[in-house]
Amino acid sequence: YIAWFMITFGITIVVINVILAARREIDRERAEKMLPSDMVEIKRQALRDLRTHRNWYARSSRVNQYLWNFLTLGIIVLSGLSSLFSAYGTIIPQWLPMATSALVALFGTIIVQFRIRDVWQLREQGRVEAEMLVAEAHLIDITDELATLKQAVALRKRAHALEMKQLNQFFVGTTAANP
Q: How far apart are CA 58 and CA 63, in angstroms?
């Protein structure tokens, strides 16, 4: 029984190894198909990836800029209106000064709680750094395939480092410019 078990076990191990080797070969072929085939495509893909990062940072920066401007202007206008409504107390409904004061408090809370200005500044810094990466990607040399790939990978690693820096700064706290 022991000999029969050893033979069966050995055959099973061989079959598993053959299946795993075939699977690795299929995975390798798939990975090779996914990689760009020539130097121009490597550069094009690097540019596309970096532009995607730049566009995301630009969009996020723009949204936070508009939000910051809207909320601060709203605070200024509503504060003035609240004072005017309070001054003309008999003519204006009583709930109006209270509502404008509540909106001013809400806008201020949103600005502070969600750190709108800090996030705007952070995303704008990310946009500038991503734009620099895009500019460097335009300079990728396409005369040697290995050099092209190394340059593209180095830029991708720098883009990943930018993402990590942004992530760390976003969750750590306020930025130095706006403590």
A: 9
What residue has token string 């706006």?
A: 178
pTM of the complete model beyond 0.90:
no
- How many CB atoms are closer than 10 A to CB 87? 10
**Spatial CA neighbour of 168 closest among 105, 109, 131, 122:** 122
From first CA to last CA, the distance across the chain in angstroms is 76
Round the CA-based radius of gyration of the chain to a whole number and report it.
29
Asked if residue 52 lies in contact with residue 127, where contact means CB atoms within 8 angstroms, the answer is no
Kindly give the confidence (pLDDT) of every residue in the chain, 179 residues in length, as a single tens digit, with 9 standing for 90 and above: 666 767 777 788 888 878 888 777 777 766 666 566 678 888 988 999 999 999 999 999 999 999 999 999 999 999 999 989 888 878 889 899 999 999 999 999 999 999 999 999 999 999 999 999 999 999 999 888 888 989 999 999 999 999 999 999 988 755 555 54
